[in-house]
Specification:
202 residues; alpha+beta; Ribosomal Protein L25, Chain P; RNA Polymerase Alpha Subunit, Chain A, domain 2; 2 domains; 6-stranded mixed β-barrel; 4-stranded mixed β-sheet; 20% helix; 42% strand
Length: 202
């Protein structure tokens, strides 16, 4: 999925200008980084940025930002570096965009999705999803939307660790080899154990 946003160059800055922008349903921000001279003041539509942030969730996503300045348009690949929110009203106040170079390696968090059906579950076990994101290092255009982990071969007691999937993907996984991602385990009957404990106490 490609994430897109349009920003307008703003020639004037200051608290009064920022207040006027917010009153007209726009959010002030800055754009800096690769191919940017200093920090460029911009504004974005409040509804557009709110919708984008809601859709993206907490994972790192590269955004295709179109910057409009008079009759010209510039295209930038950016990350959202910081979002300022009003402490009481919970309304967006300001957003910082960081422009990326195409050959710049990034460390990002990518969500893990489990696929397939474990034979162990059919025997009464449950799937314990331990690690929900992977830390990966890759180029901006290589950031995956998600990483699928197949559990269709996992039986009771089986575990998939980071070491089991390392080398499968074009990007580098930064997590520790021993970190478990998912396991198939039997759920103990706590009510029965509690009952046994009470009987032994008596």
């Amino acid at each position: 999925m490609e994430w897109q946003l349009t920003a307008e160059y703003r020639a004037k800055t200051g608290k009064n200008i920022a207040r006027k922008l917010r009153n007209s349903d726009k959010i002030p921000g800055i754009l800096y980084g690769h191919r940017i001279d200093g920090a460029v003041p911009v504004s974005v539509d409040y509804r557009d940025i709110l919708k984008l942030l809601s859709s993206m969730g907490e994972e790192t996503k590269v955004i295709q930002l179109t910057l409009r300045k008079e009759s010209k348009e510039e295209k930038h690949q950016v990350l959202i570096r910081e979002v300022q929110v009003h402490p009481f009203k919970r309304r967006l106040l300001h957003v910082d965009f960081y422009a990326l170079a195409a050959d710049q390696l990034l460390d990002v968090e990518v969500p893990i999705e489990l696929v397939g059906e474990s034979p162990g579950v059919k025997k009464g076990a449950v799937v314990e999803h331990i690690l929900h994101t992977l830390s990966v290092r890759c180029l901006p255009h290589e950031i995956p939307e998600k990483i699928e982990i197949d559990i269709s071969d996992l039986d009771i007691g089986d575990v998939i660790h980071i070491s089991d999937i390392r080398g499968r993907y074009p990007f580098r996984i930064m997590d520790d080899d021993e970190a478990p991602i998912v396991s198939i385990k039997i759920v103990e009957d706590y009510e029965e154990k509690a009952s046994e404990s009470e009987e032994s106490s008596e």
